[in-house]
Every structure is written in C-alpha cells, then in structure tokens.
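Dear Dr. H.,

I hope your travels went smoothly. While you were away I took the liberty of generating a structure for the chain from your last submission, since the lab meeting agenda had it listed for discussion. I wanted you to have the full record in hand beforehand rather than looking at slides cold. The sequence, exactly as received, is reproduced here:
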Amino acid sequence: MSDQFSVQENFIRLLRNIVPSGVQLVAEVGTALSLSNDSVYRRLRGETEFSLSEMVKLCNHFHISFDGFCESHRGSAYFQYQWPVDSIELFQQYLCRIRDEMMILKNAKEREIMYVAADIPFFILFAFPQLAWFKCYYWMRSVMNVPEYQNSFFEDEVAPEELMSIGNEILESYRIVPSTEIWSEQTLNSILKQIDFYSESGFFKDSETTQKLYADLLSLMSEIRSMTEPGTKRKDHAGDKNYTFYRCDIEIGNNCIYTSIGKNKKVFLRHSTFNTLETADEDFCAATRDWLTGLIRKSTQLSGMAEKQRNKFFQNLLAMIKNRMRV
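The corresponding predicted structure, in token form, is as follows:
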C-alpha cells in the first residue's frame, strides 16, 4: 500500500467517524468543497484522490488537525496554538472552538475524553451559571486584560447571553461523552485562590458574593460526588456508566486533555492560564496515553467503588470550602 493511498484511506475513515449521526457525509463534504454528489462519491470510494487543498478545506470545516496526516520526525511534534485573546468577542470565539470540539466528540460513534485535572474541568462549571461566569470574568479581566472589565466590580457585569448559551452547549456535550478524570486534592485550589484574590483585592462590591460563590462550589462538589458514585454524568441515564473518576496522590502539574475518536487521537495542553496547545501527532498522543495509563495505575478509582475512600476525598474538598466560609 502506497503512503499516499494510506493517507487518503485514513482521511476518509476519519471523515466517516466524525460526521454526526443523522448528517449525510456526501452532502456535508459536497457543501464544504462545492462538489456534486457524484464527485464526492468517487473520492469516498478512493477512485479519485482528495487534493491537498480539498483536504485542508475539510480539515478546517470539521476542525480536524491536518498534521495528523503528515509524517513527523521522532522527537518532534507539530502543535496548533490558540492565540491570546483580548476582547469579549474573541473570548466567545475561543468558547465556540471548545463547543465545536465537544460537539464532534458527542456525535462521533467511538469517542472518549481523558482529563488530568489540575483545575476543575471547565465544562462542568456551567452547571452553576454564577460560578462559570466568575471563571470567565476572572480570565477576561485578570488574564486577558479586556478593557471593558478593568474598572468594574464583578457584580456590575452581566454575563453575555451568547456566552452562557455556548457554555450550556459545552456542558450538554460533556454530560454525554464518556470520560475519565484524574483529580487530586489540589484540583480545587485554583478556583479557591481566584475567589480569595478577588475578595481580598476589592473586586467584589458585595461581601456576600464570596459566600455565594463558595456555596456554588459546595453544590458543585456535591454534584460531582453524585456523578462519581454511580459512574454517570446524567441523573436521568443511570445506566450510562460514562464517568470514571480517579483520585491521584501524585501532584498534578497541569491540565492535560486526551481525546479519542476511533483511531484518531488529540492532546490538548493548558498554557498561559487558559489557552491551549493542540496536537494530533501520533507519537506524542501515544506517549501521552502511556503516561495517563501509568498515572491511573498509581491512582485510586472512586467511581462505582471504594465508597470509604470516595467519602473521605469529597469530605476533604467540602471541608476546604467550608473553612473559608467561616473566615
């Protein structure tokens, strides 16, 4: 089999994997490339090769990383970089990219997320709108330095309706896609420090705001605990078994997300607080999977088992929040 044929075959297989159920692949590809159905069928059967420009267009259309089809040299990997954003509009575009990635995972036939959580996974925060909006506001004011938020109190700013709508779509997909999460007792520290910083710096107008955010965090930890016990992220689908939760005693230095759609893998690494480096490099993804597997072997599964350890872990997290509420 020639290298070119192998690339084309892998590309066609990926297209079939990621197109949502109920969407016709021929029609979707034809629309993206402005081709007739007959021309698309010839390409999908392998009778006509996709040109380089056509593959690039489809990669952009379906949010596929093109480097996954290029041969890489061992010891090097190609990463896509999310440019820093400095406006509300660009931040919403950043969220749209997360939503689109999650929608592809949600609609794929074979999909998986493995999440090493140095911070609470962003997806689940949207179950508590005030908490999610605080996180977004913190990023935009204190990390991105968005001008509109530099001289305001948190309470004076209303969460943009479109932003929260995008967040709800992210949350909906997160609840459906099977995932494995690896937490430590430090996972909660980041958002606690952010709330403390805003409280101590006078960025809250009302002293009750801090307590309300802590209360939301308590509710969030209780919800995650309720997901962990049966191993499902949706209360109305108790048989899903789509949530595997591990407690890791080794310090987790950074957020790392590994995704799988059939044979196609991606790794997302957090940098600059919330931006991401993304790669589909085969060797890098395989090495990341091996690292995750090793980390899991050193961790304790709390979902669906280990009731004593599960109770102790979440009681410790709840105590961290309650101790701050009493200060």
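Two observations you may find useful: The first helix runs from residue 3 to 18. The chain has a mean pLDDT of 87.

With kind regards,
E. W.
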